[in-house]
Protein backbone atom coordinates (compact mmCIF):
# COMPACT_ATOMS: atom_id res chain seq x y z
CA UNK A 1 0.00 0.00 0.00
CA UNK A 2 1.30 3.45 -0.91
CA UNK A 3 0.67 6.75 0.84
CA UNK A 4 1.69 10.30 0.06
CA UNK A 5 4.83 11.04 2.04
CA UNK A 6 5.81 14.41 0.64
CA UNK A 7 4.55 16.92 -1.89
CA UNK A 8 7.47 18.62 -3.63
CA UNK A 9 7.32 22.23 -4.80
CA UNK A 10 10.03 23.69 -7.01
CA UNK A 11 11.19 27.09 -5.77
CA UNK A 12 13.69 29.80 -6.65
CA UNK A 13 14.19 31.37 -3.20
CA UNK A 14 14.35 28.46 -0.76
CA UNK A 15 14.46 30.53 2.43
CA UNK A 16 11.57 32.82 1.49
CA UNK A 17 9.41 29.92 0.37
CA UNK A 18 10.27 27.86 3.45
CA UNK A 19 9.27 30.75 5.70
CA UNK A 20 5.99 31.22 3.80
CA UNK A 21 4.96 27.55 3.82
CA UNK A 22 6.02 27.02 7.45
CA UNK A 23 3.86 29.95 8.53
CA UNK A 24 1.01 29.02 6.18
CA UNK A 25 0.77 25.41 7.34
CA UNK A 26 2.21 25.60 10.84
CA UNK A 27 4.84 23.05 9.78
CA UNK A 28 8.31 22.51 11.25
CA UNK A 29 11.50 22.46 9.18
CA UNK A 30 13.88 19.54 9.30
CA UNK A 31 17.17 20.67 10.84
CA UNK A 32 19.70 18.94 8.56
CA UNK A 33 18.48 20.17 5.17
CA UNK A 34 20.89 21.20 2.43
CA UNK A 35 21.22 24.61 0.76
CA UNK A 36 18.91 23.55 -2.06
CA UNK A 37 16.28 21.41 -0.33
CA UNK A 38 13.99 21.83 2.67
CA UNK A 39 11.60 19.30 4.13
CA UNK A 40 8.68 20.74 6.10
CA UNK A 41 6.63 18.40 8.26
CA UNK A 42 3.45 18.68 10.35
CA UNK A 43 4.35 19.17 14.01
CA UNK A 44 1.58 16.78 15.05
CA UNK A 45 2.75 14.13 12.57
CA UNK A 46 -0.58 14.10 10.73
CA UNK A 47 -0.51 14.70 6.99
CA UNK A 48 2.09 14.69 4.25
CA UNK A 49 5.36 16.57 4.29
CA UNK A 50 5.91 19.50 1.96
CA UNK A 51 9.36 19.55 0.42
CA UNK A 52 10.89 22.56 -1.28
CA UNK A 53 13.41 21.90 -4.03
CA UNK A 54 15.49 24.86 -5.18
CA UNK A 55 15.47 24.16 -8.91
CA UNK A 56 14.82 27.19 -11.09
CA UNK A 57 11.68 26.72 -13.16
CA UNK A 58 8.73 28.76 -14.28
CA UNK A 59 5.32 28.26 -12.75
CA UNK A 60 2.96 26.71 -15.27
CA UNK A 61 -0.39 28.44 -15.73
CA UNK A 62 -2.68 26.78 -15.15
CA UNK A 63 -0.71 24.42 -12.93
CA UNK A 64 -0.85 20.71 -13.66
CA UNK A 65 -1.09 20.01 -9.94
CA UNK A 66 -1.89 22.19 -6.93
CA UNK A 67 -2.62 21.95 -3.21
CA UNK A 68 -6.14 22.14 -1.80
CA UNK A 69 -5.95 23.42 1.77
CA UNK A 70 -9.08 22.83 3.87
CA UNK A 71 -10.35 25.36 6.39
CA UNK A 72 -13.34 25.74 8.68
CA UNK A 73 -12.79 29.51 8.55
CA UNK A 74 -11.92 30.26 4.93
CA UNK A 75 -12.10 34.06 5.04
CA UNK A 76 -9.79 34.33 8.04
CA UNK A 77 -7.31 31.89 6.51
CA UNK A 78 -7.30 33.62 3.12
CA UNK A 79 -6.63 36.98 4.80
CA UNK A 80 -3.86 35.41 6.93
CA UNK A 81 -2.20 33.84 3.88
CA UNK A 82 -2.38 37.11 1.93
CA UNK A 83 -0.75 38.78 4.94
CA UNK A 84 2.07 36.21 4.70
CA UNK A 85 2.70 37.06 1.05
CA UNK A 86 0.17 35.05 -0.96
CA UNK A 87 -1.81 36.77 -3.70
CA UNK A 88 -5.37 36.21 -4.87
CA UNK A 89 -5.74 34.70 -8.33
CA UNK A 90 -8.67 35.67 -10.51
CA UNK A 91 -10.06 32.92 -12.74
CA UNK A 92 -12.93 33.89 -15.01
CA UNK A 93 -14.32 30.32 -14.99
CA UNK A 94 -14.67 30.17 -11.20
CA UNK A 95 -18.36 29.65 -10.37
CA UNK A 96 -19.92 32.35 -8.20
CA UNK A 97 -20.88 29.73 -5.59
CA UNK A 98 -17.45 28.04 -5.54
CA UNK A 99 -16.30 26.73 -2.17
CA UNK A 100 -12.68 27.60 -2.95
CA UNK A 101 -10.47 30.67 -3.24
CA UNK A 102 -7.44 30.50 -5.52
CA UNK A 103 -4.19 31.92 -4.17
CA UNK A 104 -0.56 31.91 -5.26
CA UNK A 105 2.47 31.69 -2.97
CA UNK A 106 5.17 34.41 -3.21
CA UNK A 107 6.65 32.73 -6.31
CA UNK A 108 3.37 32.18 -8.11
CA UNK A 109 2.70 28.53 -7.23
CA UNK A 110 -1.09 28.26 -7.05
CA UNK A 111 -3.14 26.61 -4.34
CA UNK A 112 -6.74 26.70 -3.18
CA UNK A 113 -8.30 27.31 0.20
CA UNK A 114 -11.44 25.19 0.45
CA UNK A 115 -14.34 26.14 2.73
CA UNK A 116 -15.06 23.07 4.84
CA UNK A 117 -17.29 24.86 7.37
CA UNK A 118 -20.48 23.44 5.91
CA UNK A 119 -19.29 19.82 5.62
CA UNK A 120 -20.99 17.28 7.79
What is the highest CATH level, the class of the largest domain?
Answer: Alpha Beta
What composes the largest sheet? Answer: 4 strands, mixed
Rounded Rg = 15 Å
- The ordered string of helix (H) and strand (E) elements is EHEEEEHEEE
Low-pLDDT residue intervals, each spanning 5 or more residues: none
Distance between the termini: 28 Å
Strand content: 25-35%
Across the major sheet, the strand order is 1-4-3-2
Helicity range: 10-25%
What is the molecular shape? Answer: globular
Number of strands: 8
Mean pLDDT: 94
What's the architecture of the largest domain, going by CATH?
2-Layer Sandwich
Oligomer: single chain
CATH topology of the largest domain, by name, is Signal recognition particle alu RNA binding heterodimer, srp9/1
Classify the secondary structure makeup into a structural class.
alpha/beta
Give the helix tally.
2
The number of domains is 2
